[in-house]
TrEMBL record:
Keyword field: Disulfide bond, Immunoglobulin domain
GO molecular function: cysteine-type endopeptidase activity
Protein name (record): MALT1 protein
One GO-annotated biological process of the protein: proteolysis
SUPFAM superfamilies: Caspase-like, Immunoglobulin
Residue runs in coiled coils: none
The Caspase family p20 domain, residue ranges: 208-252
Length: 252
């Protein structure tokens, strides 16, 4: 005769500063009394935690590792809880987390401004503490980036259209917190100064003709006519001719 064990409360992943004390909780129901045993995994080595045989596992955070709880009944049925991650931030700025921290997201790493050549990888990174561990969502120019939902934003081959202002929102059940906004520039490869100077010497002797195009509008469909553009174009064309420009002036 076997009976099912149902986990009614799974443990949750957290992201906390080193030295922070908290409790992982697991709850289950069965037809007989239940026994609990917690396990941890660090750098792919999994081991049973001695004496961790209760529903609650008190932890003082020391290093990032994974945890799971095994529950068995008197009929030798056993189930494991979800694996959860306890992410531990070793270096946290002074004053973080706030003194009365209740687990709301706190940004501990902001992305940095970057210039990237077209076709090269773009990587932005942020991190936040939170209980539960925050989820992440990246934005570019205020628009949500559908597939960028991790601490690291990764674009394998950057395009010019990937340029813009990026920021990330970290959120959990207690609220949300935004990173700083950073400008990302995607462009062509920049030449070393000596080669750039050489290129200037090659190009500029060819650019001998100087042409200025001036356009003055003074008739508008939904606005009274303006008089200033006529005089502006006239005065500007005189000035530019004195500077050696060939001037083409257009009105309306």
């Amino acid at each position: 005769f076997s009976t099912a064990i149902v986990i009614t409360e799974q443990p949750i992943s957290v992201s906390v500063p080193v030295g922070y004390s908290f409790t992982l909780r697991c709850r289950a129901e069965g037809r007989t009394s239940l026994q609990y045993q917690w396990f941890s995994q660090y750098q792919s080595v999994c081991c049973q935690i001695p004496g961790a045989t209760k529903e609650d596992l008190p932890i003082t955070a020391q290093q990032t590792q994974l945890y799971t709880c095994r529950i068995n009944d008197l009929y030798k049925n056993a189930v494991f809880s979800d694996w959860v991650k306890v992410e531990v931030h070793q270096c946290v700025a002074r004053g973080l987390p706030p003194r009365l921290w209740r687990g709301e997201p706190v940004i501990v790493l902001n992305p940095t401004e970057q210039r990237v050549e077209v076709g090269k990888p773009l990587q932005l990174q942020c991190a936040a503490m939170g209980v539960p561990a925050p989820s992440y969502q990246w934005y570019r120019n205020g628009n949500l980036l559908e597939h960028q939902k991790k601490k690291k934003l990764w674009i394998t081959h950057a395009k010019v259209s990937d340029s813009g202002t990026y920021l990330c929102c970290a959120s959990n059940s207690h609220g949300e917190h935004w990173t700083n906004a950073v400008d990302i520039h995607i462009g062509g490869a920049t030449l070393p100064p000596a080669e750039r100077l050489q290129l200037c010497h090659l190009v500029f002797p060819l650019a001998t003709g100087k042409i200025a195009l001036l356009v003055g509008n003074n008739r508008y469909q939904h606005h009274p006519n303006l008089m200033a553009p006529v005089t502006d174009v006239f005065e500007l064309s005189l000035l530019l001719e004195q500077l050696g420009f060939q001037v083409v002036s257009l009105l309306d």
